Amino acid sequence: MAHFKTSFTILAFFFSLTFLTAIKSETLFARELSARDQFGLKPEKMTHLRFYLHDTITGQHPTAVPVAQAATTNTSSTSFGLVAVIDDPLTMSPDPNSTLVGRAQGIYASSSQSEVSLTLTMNLVFVEGAYNGSTLSVLGQDPILKNPRELAIVGGTGIFRFARGYIQLRTYTNNPRTNNAIVKYDAYALHY
Ligand SMILES: *[C@@H]1O[C@H](CO)[C@@H](O)[C@H](O)[C@H]1NC(C)=O
Ligand SMILES: *[C@@H]1O[C@H](CO)[C@@H](O)[C@H](O)[C@H]1NC(C)=O
Ligand SMILES: *[C@@H]1O[C@H](CO)[C@@H](O)[C@H](O)[C@H]1NC(C)=O
């Protein structure tokens, strides 16, 4: 009986040791790494991307859909309070049938009472070549009648990890009847 008890104690000891080691390897709150030596970051570079966003509000296949609005939005000259979700295609040239390079997925809200201006929060999700699967996260104010206007690149994934930069937007066409627009994007991203 004593013998059994001893082996049990030894077993329990080794079990808890293994268990504690396992927990320790799963527990890492913060540690400092050398960006270049331990993390393998290459020197920083700048990438310029040019593409065209197609914002389709009306028609059979809208890519921007209003999801909410205030009681006063209809009587506001700037549609103040309107919120829309977008999944806008991004193409190589202004032709909507040209090569798809990605999609702009996110939310915009009409957020000015004095001009038509949107607050944009979105991810540019790329599918083209080496950029397939990489994203740029964008945040900014978009006064749509101003040319150019500018958005901030606040981060990224994949090729664009650690990205920061800006995007200049210029309206290429805006159909006043349908409100559908094609917007030229010139993005300048610093990344590694
Ligand atoms: C605003 O206008 C839309 C479309 O004309 C209509 O469907 C909606 O009910 C109106 N909303 C309010 C709060 O009046
Ligand atoms: C794009 O392609 C579709 C289908 O082939 C065609 O119906 C449409 O007219 C084309 N659009 C343009 C702008 O060329
Ligand atoms: C992008 O990658 C996905 C798989 O991750 C693949 O299915 C898709 O065909 C690729 N798209 C392009 C345009 O290469």
Give the count of structural domains. Answer: 2
Radius of gyration: 25 Å
Helix content: 10-25%
Distance between the termini: 65 Å
Characterize the main sheet: 8 strands, antiparallel, barrel
Listed once per kind, the bound small molecules are: 2-acetamido-2-deoxy-beta-D-glucopyranose
Q: Mind telling me the CATH superfamily name of the largest domain?
A: Allene oxide cyclase-like
Q: Output the CATH class name of the largest domain.
A: Mainly Beta
Annotation, overall tally of beta strands: 9
In round numbers, the mean pLDDT is 92
Low-confidence stretches: none
Query: Helical segment tally?
Result: 1
Shape: elongated
Plain-language structure description:
With 192 residues, the protein is mainly beta. It has two domains: 2-31; 39-191, Beta Barrel (AOC barrel-like), CATH 2.40.480.10. The protein contains one helix and nine strands; from the N terminus they run H-E-E-E-E-E-E-E-E-E. The protein has one helix at residues 2-26, and strands spanning 45-55, 64-68, 83-91, 100-110, 117-126, 135-143, 149-157, 164-174, 181-191. Strands 1-3-4-5-6-7-8-9 form an eight-stranded antiparallel beta barrel. Strand 3 (83-91) and strand 4 (100-110) form a beta hairpin. The model has no long low-confidence stretch (mean pLDDT 92). The structure holds 2-acetamido-2-deoxy-beta-D-glucopyranose (NAG) (3 copies). One 2-acetamido-2-deoxy-beta-D-glucopyranose binds at residues 127, 132-133. Residues 127, 132-133 line the site of one 2-acetamido-2-deoxy-beta-D-glucopyranose (NAG).
